[in-house]
């Protein structure tokens, strides 16, 4: 099921929700980031670019999208995982899932992915997501949001996506 194929004008995803951009500035950090729609290697894309800084207890930038325009949960239990067309600057990024069980900003279920310098399609199976600062297991019936993050170390981030979808049965 497509989450976003970039067929709608920015910042609207194909599922009707808006892409949003967040940094550690919400908690006093100083990381800087931009998010733009542009063409990258002949593909319509969303690009998150900036500098992750660890100053002032910071260390992240993230672009995210709800799975429903009104923020209600999506039942992803019939799917195997998330598939994303991605490229970037050769760095390691995180794909973070949030469910209705997630109550704090630092909580999520996470999996890492490399953003190579050429376009690649990456499949991230739900079974490989790890809980981060949350004791509850990933409940795919209550999935609310997907975030793509540059996090945890100081580095220049440049993450580009042209499609994100669930894959597998259902």
CATH architecture: Sandwich
Oligomer kind: single chain
The residue fraction in helices comes out at under 10%
- Shape category: globular
Mean pLDDT: 95
Could you tell me the CATH topology label.
Jelly Rolls
Q: Number of DSSP strands?
A: 12
Question: The biggest beta sheet, please?
Answer: 6 strands, antiparallel
Sequence stretches where pLDDT stays below 50 over 5 or more residues = none
User: What is the total number of structural domains?
Assistant: 1
CA distance, first residue to last residue: 9 Å
Order of secondary-structure elements? EEEEEEEEEEEE
Structural class: mainly beta
Please work out how many helical segments DSSP would assign.
Answer: 0
Name of the CATH first level:
Mainly Beta
> How large is the share of residues in beta strands?
over 45%
For the record, what is the CATH homologous superfamily label?
Answer: Galactose-binding lectin
| CA-based gyration radius | 15 Å
Give the SSE map.
Blueprint: E1 2-4, E2 19-23, E3 32-40, E4 43-52, E5 60-66, E6 81-88, E7 91-99, E8 108-115, E9 120-125, E10 130-132, E11 143-151, E12 155-167
Antiparallel strand pairs: 1-12, 2-5, 3-4, 4-12, 5-11, 6-9, 6-12, 7-8, 7-11, 8-10
């Amino acid at each position: 099921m497509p989450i976003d194929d970039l067929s709608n004008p920015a910042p609207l995803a194909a599922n009707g929700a808006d892409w949003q951009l967040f940094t550690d500035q919400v908690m006093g950090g100083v990381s800087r980031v931009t998010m733009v729609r542009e063409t990258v290697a002949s593909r319509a894309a969303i690009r998150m670019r900036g500098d992750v800084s660890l100053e002032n207890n910071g260390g992240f930038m993230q672009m995210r999208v709800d799975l429903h325009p009104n923020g209600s949960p999506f039942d992803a239990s019939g799917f195997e995982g998330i598939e994303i067309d991605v490229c970037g600057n050769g760095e390691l990024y995180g794909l973070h899932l949030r469910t209705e069980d997630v109550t704090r900003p630092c909580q999520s279920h996470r999996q890492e992915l490399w953003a190579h310098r050429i376009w690649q399609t990456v499949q991230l199976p739900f079974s490989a997501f790890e809980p981060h600062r949350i004791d509850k297991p990933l409940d795919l019936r209550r999935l609310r949001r997907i975030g793509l993050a540059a996090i945890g170390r100081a580095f220049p981030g440049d993450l580009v996506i042209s499609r994100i979808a669930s894959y597998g049965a259902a």
